[in-house]
Structure formats: C-alpha cells, structure tokens
Amino acid sequence: MKALITGASSGMGRDMARYLLELNYDLILVSHSQKRLEESFKKYKDHVKMYTFDLTKEEDCVELYKKTRHEKIDILINNAGFGDTGNFSETNLQKELDMINLNVKAYHILTKLFLRDFIKRDYGRILNVASLAGFMPGPYMATYYATKSYIVNLSLAIAEELKIDKSHVKISIFCPGPVSTNFSNVANVKFNLPSLPSEYASKIAIDGMFQDKLVIVPPNMKLNHLLAKIMPTNIVLKVTSLVQERQSTIDEPNKK
Predict the structure, then answer these.
(1) Can you give the CATH number for the domain in which 64 is found?
(2) Active site residue: 144, 145, 150, 170, which one?
(3) Which of 10, 12, 100, 207 is the most exposed place for a label (fewest CB within 10 A)?
(4) Is 144 a catalytic residue?
(5) Known catalytic residue: 148?
(6) 240: Cβ contacts below 8 Å, ≥ 6 apart
(7) 197-222 pLDDT, tens per residue?
(8) Which domain holds residue 54?
C-alpha cells in the first residue's frame, strides 16, 4: 500500500507520514525543502520516495502528478498550507496569493487529477486537511478561513458525487482547531485555545480516514463545530473577530 503526502517535512504532514510507516505503508513525500525531508526520514529510505516541488505553482502540481501517477497510490493526503493574520486591507497581497495557490489551487489540482485515476480503478482514498475555520468566516484571518471553506465545500460536494455514483473511492476532510506545528509562526498568530500535539492530531486524522468518516473533527473541537453550524452568522462573526483580534501577534501589519 502506498500514500502520497504533501507538506511532509514538518508538522502534521511529517507525523501522518510516520504513523503510516508504522502501518507498513510505502510513502511518496512532497515538500519545498529536500533537506528537511531527508532529515526527517533518512532512516526510512527503503520505504520513502522524496520529491521537492513548489506547490504554489500550478505547473509543479501537474508535474508532481505526472511523476507519480504510475506509482499505484492508494491514498492522497493534501496537507501543505499556511495562513496569515491581520486586517485584510493591510495584509501582504503576494503572501495571500501564494496562500490561495497552495491552500486552494494545489488541493484542487491534485484532488482532481488523482481522483480521476481512483475512479477508473474504483478504489483509493483522499484526505484533505482543512480546518474548523472552514465552517465560518474569519475576520483578521479572512483569506485563510476562506481557503479552508473552499476545501471543506469542495470535498463535501465530491463526496456526494461519489456516493451517487456508488463509487468505492472515499474522501475525508480533517478539520482540527489549533495544532502544535510551525503554522502559528508563519501565520503570525498565537492561539488562545489549547493546541493539540501534532502526533495526536495526525493519528486522529488517519484513523478517521480509515473509518470512512467524511468530516473528521478532534474531540476537543466538536462543540465548536456544532456551534459554528447553529449560531447566527452575525454572532459567529463577532465571536471570531474577538478571538482573532486577541490572538494576533502582529505589531505592524505587512503592507503591500
């Protein structure tokens, strides 16, 4: 059995990879940093192939698919992504465009291309790492929340199409809250909520995928998930705005 994981050099991508290695999977690992991949997985070389791509670039996403499409991949895990914090009128435009390219376009391209192959052979799994942020608007992290909403709704729609077609291909969405990774440093944010250990969150994601769960939410976020669905939008906006404003660690917004 074989899995492909993007964003595999650190955080949940790395920890999901290690968990799958324990389950005797062979892996294709993708990152923008070959060095970090090699440092993290040098002792697993017999079971791991490593590729360096910049998935903010459409052509690199397509090239990754072309290089791996004949590998008989059983699981695709779209995990690479990042966020940013600040007032939307003041945040860095280029960083946001890169975020959209990675958090949305890369997921979209890889999901579509591998899904076609999975459907033809009538098996395969896709795990899209989203966020609880995908179920609500996020003032002061507007672009990040919007990208995760795209992934949640895209994946839900695909799941329904697969169900109608009676396909054996499965798609799952992992929607955690804060997780202890390098995400907060890149996003310039310090979470007030307790962060799950990355190893624990990764195990929840993989186990939920194998249980054919469509939406996988860690136990500590189930109430938040429910409230996000039932509370009026104006209340969700107010609460999220207050939370994000307190969490922001930006001293001076990065303008462009």
Answers:
(1) 3.40.50.720
(2) 144
(3) 207
(4) yes
(5) yes
(6) 136, 137, 138, 139, 145
(7) 999 999 999 999 999 999 999 988 78
(8) 2-247
